[in-house]
Amino acid sequence: MLKLRTSDAGFDKAFARLVKDRRESDENVARDVQTIIDDVRLRGDEALAEYTERFDQHLPAEDDWRIPAEACREAFDGLKPDLRAALELAAQRIRAYHEAQLPEDRDYTDAAGIRLGARWTAVDGAGLYVPGGRAAYPSSLLMNAIPAKVAGVERLVVVTPTPKGLVNPLVLAAAHLAGVDEVWRVGGAQAVAALAYGTKRIKPVDVITGPGNAWVAEAKRQLFGVVGIDMVAGPSEILVIADGKNDPQWIAADLLSQAEHDPSAQAILITDDEGFADQVADMVGVEIALLPTAKVAKASWDAHGTIIVVNSLDEAPALANALAAEHVEIATDSPERLFDKIRHAGSVFLGRMTPEAIGDYVAGPNHVLPTGRRARFSSGLSVLDFMKRTSFIAVSDASISAVGPAAVELAEAEGLAAHARSIALRLGQ
Amino acid sequence: MLKLRTSDAGFDKAFARLVKDRRESDENVARDVQTIIDDVRLRGDEALAEYTERFDQHLPAEDDWRIPAEACREAFDGLKPDLRAALELAAQRIRAYHEAQLPEDRDYTDAAGIRLGARWTAVDGAGLYVPGGRAAYPSSLLMNAIPAKVAGVERLVVVTPTPKGLVNPLVLAAAHLAGVDEVWRVGGAQAVAALAYGTKRIKPVDVITGPGNAWVAEAKRQLFGVVGIDMVAGPSEILVIADGKNDPQWIAADLLSQAEHDPSAQAILITDDEGFADQVADMVGVEIALLPTAKVAKASWDAHGTIIVVNSLDEAPALANALAAEHVEIATDSPERLFDKIRHAGSVFLGRMTPEAIGDYVAGPNHVLPTGRRARFSSGLSVLDFMKRTSFIAVSDASISAVGPAAVELAEAEGLAAHARSIALRLGQ
C-alpha cells in the first residue's frame, strides 16, 4: 500500500506515476489470437472443436454444443427462493433503468423546407461473452443481456466455455431470466471469432460485448470493425473520497470490494483526515483476514492500494479527474458539491449509504464501466451499444434552391465534379 | 460494371458475393504502424521530426510546427465571397443539426427511494486528422470539428501533413470557421501517435477522429483504447433505389458522385425497370467523359459498379439491409414506404430531389458515416463521439433496506465476500 500526502514535496511526481501506472496485462497474446481468428474464419466449426478440446479439455458431442433453453429454465427453477428473488429484483431494476435510456428518433422540417431526422434501430444479433470458472458472474450476464434486449435485439447469443464439460447453473439461470436466445459451450478467442465471422453451427452477430481474459479482450480488439464491440476492458478500480466522519470498517470493505476482483485491481482512498486514513489502513488488514477472497484482495491492496491525504477535500475532484476511475464513491454529507466538479468517472456513488457493490447488483445503472482512465472518453455499457442511428434527408423541389448552389460551390472547390453535377442538374444548370 | 437480375437463377449466389466483396485495403501496414507508434511514444518530437522529414519531404523550422490561428483567419478572409458564404451556410446548418443531438442528463428518485441518473460531459481534448493532398476536404473538417465544438470540447487539435511544406488554404479557412484551437503540420501514423500519447510539443488528446489513408486508419485502430476513435473507415459507397420515372442522367451523376472518390468506391443501382437500367448505364458512360475525375470514377464503376434489376421495388429493402450501405438514395414518389423497411444504412436520401451530395455539404447531418457494411452496428459521427456519460447512484438510510439484502444474496452467490460485507455492514448485519 502506498501512502501519499498532497502537502509533501514530490507529491506531483508520485501522483503522476500513479496515474500512469499500467496495471493491464502485457501478455503477448496478439499473435496467437490472430492465428486463432484466422483459423476459425477459414475452417469454422472444425477449428472451433480443436481449440475447445485443447483449451477446455472437453469436446462436446455433435448435438451438445448448444445448451438447450430448457436447461436454462431448469437451472432458474432450481435456484433457492431468496437467490431467485434477488436475481429477479436485479433484472427488474436494470431493465427499468435501461428502458429510460432508449433514444428518441428525430424528424422535422427546418426553415429552409428541408426534412431532416434520425432513426434508431437495434442491431440484428448480439453476442455476449461469459467467462467460465471464477469470473462467471450471473450479474454480468444480466448487465450485458438486458440492455441488448431492451434495445430490441432479436437474437442474443451467449458463448461460455465449459471447462471439462462443467456448466455454471447460475449463469444458465441468469440467461433464462434475461431472455437469451442461444447459449453455446465455446470460449476464448475462438468463440469471439466464431461470433464475428460465423460458422456452420453458429450464425454471426453484429456486436460482441462481455468480459473475458486477455485472449478474449485481444480478440475483441482485433475484431473491432468486423463487428461492434463495447470497450477494451482492464482490471477494476475504485476511488473512495471520504471525510473523517465515516466508519473506517465500511470504507475498508468498500476498498476491498474491488481489490478482491483481481490482483491487478486498484483501490484508492482520498481523505482529509490522516487519523482516519490510518484507521482505514488498519481496518483493511482486519477485514482481509475475514475474506475467503483474502489472497487476491491482499495482493491487490499490497501492490496497488493507495491512500492520499489531502489538506482539504476540495483538492479531491482534480485528483479524481486525473485518475478517471471506473468507480468513485463520495462518502461525505454533501457529496453533490464534489460530484459537480468531477468530469471523468465511470460511475459515481453518492453518500455514506451507497457502497459501490450496490451498483454491481441491484441499483439499475450498468456495472460494465470504463477502466484504465478510459472514463476520459468512454461510457458504461448502455442500450446505445446495441443500436445504431440512420440519418435521413429529404429535399423538396422548392427547397433545393435554398441549399443547392452552396453545395455546388463547395463540391467544385473540392474538385469533386460529379458531386457538383448531381446537384446542378437538379437545379436545371 | 456488373448487372444482376433477382429473377435470374444464380442471383442469390452472385448477390452474396457482392455483399462479401471486401474493397478495403489489405496493405500490410500493421507492423510498420506499430513501429512508428512505439517510436513516437518513446522518442516524442524527435521521432515525429524524422518521420515528417521522411514522409512529407519537409522539416518545419522549430517555431513552424504549429500553424498560427492568424494564418487560418487570413485564409478564411482570403476566400472568394461565394465560397466563403457557402462554407458559412454549411457550418451553420451542420451546427444546428448537431446542437439538437446533445443528450439530456437524467436525475430521478425511483419508487424504492433510490436516486439514479446519468450526466454527460465532453472529453477534454479531441484530435482531428485532416489528410493532405487530394483528399483534404474543408467539408470533412467542418463535419468533424463542429460536432466536437457543439459537444463542448475545449481543446480541438487538427493535425495535417504539409507535403513539401505546402498547406491547403481551404483547410485552414475551415479550421478558422469551425473554431479549431491548434493546427499542427504533421501527418501519417506518427501524427496519430503524437495525439494519443502526446509529445513535448503536442499535448495528448482523448479522442481522435477524421479520415486518412491505410496507415492513419491502422494507427487509429491500434490506438483504440488508449484514446477513443470514431470508427474504422473504408471506401465510400452509394446504393440508389430508383423507379423508371427518374431522369437517367441525374441517377448516373449520383452513382458517379461516389465513384469519383476512390477506385475502391462502390456505386449500386437497384431498379424495377430494365430499360431504365440500360439508360442509366449508357448515361454513366456519357457523364464519366465530362468529369475531371473520370479516371478514378471509371476505375470504380468498371470494377465495382453494379445494377440490380428487381421484379418489384418491394424486393429492394431486403437487398439494402444485406448491403448495409453508407448512403442510400430512394428516388421514388413515396420513398417512406421503402425507407420504413430499411434497417441498416448510414444515411438515407429521400425523393428525387435529394442527391447524396447535398448531404456531403449543406444538409446538416454528418457525412462521416459507416462503410463496409458497418451500418449493421455503427452510426455516423455525432456529438456523442466527443462525450461520455457518468452514471450515479445515491442510496439513502431509508432505501438501503429495499435493495441491500438482495445485493448481499447475489454477492455471496458469486463468492465476492467483500462486496457482500460492504453492504451487510451498512444494514447492521
Automatic annotation (TrEMBL), chains A, B:
Gene3D superfamilies: 1.20.5.1300, Nitrogenase molybdenum iron protein domain (3.40.50.1980). The keyword Zinc applies. Substrate binds at residues 236, 258, 261, 327, 360, 414, 419. PROSITE patterns: HISOL_DEHYDROGENASE. Its cofactor is Zn(2+). Pathway: Amino-acid biosynthesis; L-histidine biosynthesis; L-histidine from 5-phospho-alpha-D-ribose 1-diphosphate: step 9/9. It catalyses: L-histidinol + 2 NAD(+) + H2O = L-histidine + 2 NADH + 3 H(+). It comes from the Bacteria. GO terms for molecular function: histidinol dehydrogenase activity; NAD binding; zinc ion binding. NAD(+) binds at residues 129, 190, 213. Catalyzes the sequential NAD-dependent oxidations of L-histidinol to L-histidinaldehyde and then to L-histidine. NCBIfam families: hisD. PANTHER family: HISTIDINE BIOSYNTHESIS TRIFUNCTIONAL PROTEIN (PTHR21256:SF2), HISTIDINOL DEHYDROGENASE HDH (PTHR21256). Belongs to the histidinol dehydrogenase family. This is Histidinol dehydrogenase. It comes from Novosphingobium olei. The gene is hisD.
